[in-house]
Amino acid sequence: MLKEVIATRYITPLREGGSLPGLVEADDLGMYVMKFTGAGQGRKTLVAEVVCGELARRLGFRVPHLVTVELDPLLGLGEPDQEVQELLKSSGGTNLGMDFLSGALGFDPLAFAVSPEEAGRIVWFDALVNNVDRSWRNPNLLMWHGEPWLIDHGATMIWHHNWPGAEASALRPYDASDHALRSFAPDVTAAAAALAPLVTEDLLAEVTAEIPDVWLTGEPGFDTPDDLRRAYARPLLARAAVVHERVQGVK
Q: What does each C-alpha distance from 125 to 6, 59, 130, 149 come to in angstroms?
């Protein structure tokens, strides 16, 4: 399970994100970028962050370490910004945190080079999880210590917003024509050969086990959190073997 920490201080909002994440300090003295259950799509965004972040880590990608952050809504009472105060008050309980990569720079395809191999691996992974939010306008990549790090996976696996249509949605092609790494001639076929065999039932069970039960309870159509965990795993397992054939918009 993800490490659990308790938020002790809210430092500042990070307004680059549409869901208004915030920088917090926790009881382990770590600093985390915190995403809130009370923001945007709520807990489904946090589930997507966990599934994609932990799967990416196990496939060898660089992603910030994830934790669950317990938030006392009283922490928001002293916030002068009304929007932030309301967000903190509505997000009591278990939220998501990711390591703050101090000094990291936003990825700019004109300033940083990525090899076709690495570009192919990232495009393949984004196709697997149907990441619609890694465009040249908003790469959701950070350069830290000279290496690209993947962040912000809340806009992935869009099928989990409509479970009855999940199977059909997961069969759709992936359009990479706007992808941030398209210009680096991504070798998606080589990436698929290396990565697809690693995506197994056991691996996906390990990844989905990281999702806190509290984010999975009460989902219509599912009796238990484990039923929903298996629903998250099924489309990913099916896509892994064939998604490279459905990537559109790259040479």
A: 31, 9, 8, 13
